[in-house]
Specification:
The structure holds two protein chains of two kinds. By secondary structure, chain A is α+β, with helices and mostly antiparallel strands. Helices cover 25% and strands 43% of the residues of chain A. Chain A has one domain. Chain A is globular and about 55 Å long. The N and C termini of chain B lie far apart (43 Å). Chain B has a domain at 54-151: 2-Layer Sandwich (Alpha-Beta Plaits), CATH 3.30.70. The chains are: A alpha+beta, B alpha/beta.
């Protein structure tokens, strides 16, 4: 049975699609896409990034730096956004997180609109990701009291640490999918407190998914695996922080 | 295994060579612009900022930048411009959130601690203002972001 929490630690959920293009990237796609979603996502923002590349030359290797842009379209209360970049679509749900059914509809609807416009050949990568932020009121905790997944150091070393970052990639479905689990500390909101991120990213690379139904099924499966992984990573003491709803 | 709150987080020292700085900056930009999670992007930018500035009140700076995300780009550019103009005369660059409850004011202050004389330091700050700051930092950002110099 699904567990539900009154104080859910979900800080952000996102679904990212990287596409195999059908043709060279058309800069007008983002603008046309905005026309389709602007009633739901009216706030436009632009992000600028840099792409690195290396090109062999007679006298060595030339480093190429290319600027690229990504458009972000936020809904009116900034609790969700859609990002469009070169052969990239991401649907993010920020706090307050409503429920999976709503988020899944948002993903599928926006994917459909993007595919109608950009007509990509297929997917290069799909990822469903949940980022949980867990705050503690103490300045020192026994991490194994709260998590079943945590860093381990040899007994001969001091059994105390502060900054840490642990990440593991676990193959699923005979290696077709992977779950990337990251546990790391982040800057807390209150001095001398502890704040952690449990980041669960379920991905498939070079998927042989073609139809909308297959995509919807894969996302639903990914969500089930992420939920299982979340519950597997935390202990009852951690669950108590979230006020489980019985 | 006991986890404790960070007291004095170890941060990498500032990269002083312009070329290296630019590369690492762009590389990092690339990494976090490729990052599609807004939560993780913010954390990576904070980490990068900690490589460039001594963060005097990290928690408050983090909170403020969460509300004013547009300042990240300005802060990275500011670092590059300060390095261009003050060069090896920089002893330390610090970043602090200052507030004045009576005036209902909060804003970020970058302080350039330099080994120059007060006159030389002010001359370079004027050059920094004329060549870059006054053009780049305007409108609402100029009311919440200040760069000062301190001759040690």
């Amino acid at each position: 049975m699904d567990r539900k929490y009154a104080k859910s630690p979900i800080k952000e959920a996102l679904c990212e699609f990287q596409f195999v293009p059908n043709q060279p990237w058309d800069m007008t796609v983002a603008g046309l896409f905005y026309e389709k979603i602007k009633e739901e996502f009216p706030i436009k923002k632009q992000q600028v990034g840099y792409q690195f590349g290396f090109q062999p030359k007679e006298d060595g290797i030339e480093q190429k730096v290319e600027k690229f842009q990504r458009m972000q379209f936020f809904n009116s209360d900034s609790s969700a956004l859609v990002q469009v970049g070169v052969d990239l679509l991401t649907i993010n749900h920020l706090k307050p997180y409503s429920k999976w059914e709503n988020f899944k509809s948002m993903i599928i609807e926006n994917l459909k609109k993007y595919q109608e416009l950009a007509t990509p050949k297929g997917f290069k990568r799909i990822g469903l990701r949940y980022i949980n932020k867990i705050g503690f009121s103490e300045n020192s905790i026994e991490i194994k009291d709260y998590f079943n997944y945590y860093p381990s150091t040899p007994d001969d070393l001091p059994q105390m640490h502060d900054t840490f970052h642990v990440r593991v990639e676990i193959p699923y479905k005979q290696g077709r999918d992977h779950l990337i689990i990251t546990l790391t500390n982040v800057i807390p909101e209150i001095p001398d407190r502890i704040s952690l991120i449990l980041d669960l990213d379920y991905i498939i690379e070079k998927p042989e998914i073609t139809t909308g139904n297959q995509t919807s099924d894969w996302i639903a499966d990914a969500h089930i695996e992420i939920k299982k992984a979340f519950e597997a990573c935390i202990t009852d003491k951690c669950r108590n922080l979230f006020d489980e709803v019985i | 295994m006991t986890l404790t709150a960070e007291k004095n987080p170890v941060r990498q020292s500032i990269v002083f060579i312009f070329g290296s700085y630019l590369n690492s900056y762009l590389e990092k930009q690339f990494q976090f612009e490729m990052e599609t999670s807004l939560t993780r992007q913010h954390e990576e930018k904070m980490e990068l900022l900690g490589n460039f500035y001594i963060l005097k009140n990290r928690i408050e700076v983090n909170r403020f930048l969460g509300k004013h995300k547009e300042l990240f780009g300005v802060l990275f550019e500011t670092y590059m411009q300060i390095k261009n103009i003050f060069g090896e005369n920089i002893v330390e660059l610090s970043l602090k959130l200052e507030n004045d409850p009576e005036e209902d004011y909060e804003g970020l202050f970058v302080t350039i601690n330099t080994n120059l004389s007060p006159e030389e330091a002010l001359d370079l700050l004027e050059r920094f203002d004329d060549e870059w700051f006054l053009d780049r930092v305007s409108g609402e950002i100029s009311s919440i972001f200040t760069v000062t110099v301190r001759a040690l």
